[in-house]
Amino acid sequence: MSISVKPTKTKFRRAFVPKTALAKSVRFTNELMEVSLTDGRIISVPVIWFPLLHEATLQQREKYEIGGGGVSLHWPELDEDLSVASLLAGADLASA
After folding, report:
1. What residues of the chain score a pLDDT lower than 50?
2. Which pTM does this prediction carry?
């Protein structure tokens, strides 16, 4: 008795690879700033990295603007500006 095995075709599917990192919202916990991106990622960074945000009240932190279609964050009341690219790059502890 022989058993025939039919070759199976594997459908190749590509993973989603984001081309840009654009902010869609920002939220704060006691110690972290969490930036939600349009591609589904969330960047979490310590608020202490940003002295103006660290010293601000929760109400001041919540008054932000997203600029450049999502490439930058701005807090007009605090005169604080951050780029999404710099958040993705992380801290440069050597220059601190």
Report:
1. 94-96
2. 0.75
Q: E strand or H helix at 23, and its extent?
A: strand 23-28
Query: Which one, of 23, 24, 22, 43, lies nearest residue 33 by Cα?
Result: 43
Sheet strand arrangement including 23-28:
23-28, 32-37, 42-46
Render pLDDT for 47-70 as a digit per residue (tens, 0 to 9). Answer: 999 999 999 999 999 999 999 999
Terminal Cα-to-Cα distance of the chain (whole angstroms): 75
- Domains of the chain, CATH where assigned: 23-91 (3.30.2020.40)
Give the separation between CA 67 and CA 54, rounded to whole angstroms: 21
